[in-house]
């Protein structure tokens, strides 16, 4: 059998949004645009769903007024990425996003079990490149919270990463950079 070269096509966020508006995708189709690639989002297990609900509840109480906890809603990260993180923390009123998805959340949180590699190796660098100051992974595999801060390009490769990484076990308490007075128990985030 002969081998034929193949080539993919990268999509822009504007093209993706136009397809969504035109109804090109089925409303139940779970897609997100990551670095120009349309990715199918994995189905969620019950622990994943419970972790999202726990984080939503804890964050709303800890952050208080002036902050929005957006659950699995798009963010306009850059021209080629419109991820739908499990949770994003955005300042302001929901009406602020009437004409465009938020682009600079103060905090992004992904809950990871089967998607741990994707959340670390693909989404993490995308969020760093997008200048998002803080990124958390509720790691259900190891029952820990991974905290990533200070986005910066690596000096040798130019690839974007978070300069500071901390892994916190269930006994730890964490405060988001955007709300340093808030105290969140890692145990309250893990089912």
SSE layout and pairing:
Blueprint: H1 13-21, E1 31-34, E2 37-40, H2 46-63, E3 67-71, E4 87-91, E5 107-112, H3 116-129, E6 134-139, E7 144-153, E8 160-168, E9 173-174, E10 184-185
Parallel strand pairs: 5-6
Antiparallel strand pairs: 1-2, 3-4, 4-5, 6-7, 7-8, 9-10
- Intertermini distance: 50 Å
CATH class: Alpha Beta
Would you identify the regions where 5 or more consecutive residues have pLDDT less than 50? Answer: none
Structure annotation, total helices: 3
Q: Which structural class is indicated by helix and strand composition? A: alpha+beta
Brief synopsis:
With 191 residues, the protein is of the alpha+beta class. 21% of the residues lie in helices and 28% in strands.
Task: Report on this structure.
The chain is 21% helix and 28% strand. The longest helix has 18 residues, at 46-63. It is an alpha+beta fold and 191 residues long. The chain has three helices and ten strands.
Features:
191 residues; alpha+beta; tt1808, chain A; six-stranded mixed beta sheet; two-stranded antiparallel ribbon; 10 strands; globular
């Amino acid at each position: 059998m002969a081998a034929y070269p193949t080539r993919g096509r990268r999509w822009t966020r504007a093209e993706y949004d136009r397809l969504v508006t035109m109804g090109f995708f089925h409303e139940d189709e779970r897609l997100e645009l990551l670095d120009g690639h349309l990715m199918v989002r994995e189905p969620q297990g019950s622990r994943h769903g419970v972790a999202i609900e726990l984080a939503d509840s804890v964050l709303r109480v800890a952050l208080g007024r002036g902050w929005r906890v957006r659950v699995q809603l798009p963010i306009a990260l850059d021209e080629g990425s419109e991820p739908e993180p499990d949770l994003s923390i955005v300042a302001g009123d929901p009406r602020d996003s009437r004409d465009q998805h938020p682009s600079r959340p103060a905090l992004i949180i992904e809950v990871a079990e089967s998607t741990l590699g994707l959340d670390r190796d693909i989404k993490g660098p995308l969020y760093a490149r997008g200048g998002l100051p803080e990124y958390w992974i509720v790691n259900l595999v190891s029952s820990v919270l991974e905290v990533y801060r200070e986005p910066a390009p690596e000096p040798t490769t130019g690839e974007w990463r978070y300069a500071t990484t901390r892994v916190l076990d269930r006994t730890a308490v964490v405060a988001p950079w955007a709300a340093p007075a808030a105290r969140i128990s890692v145990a309250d985030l893990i089912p």
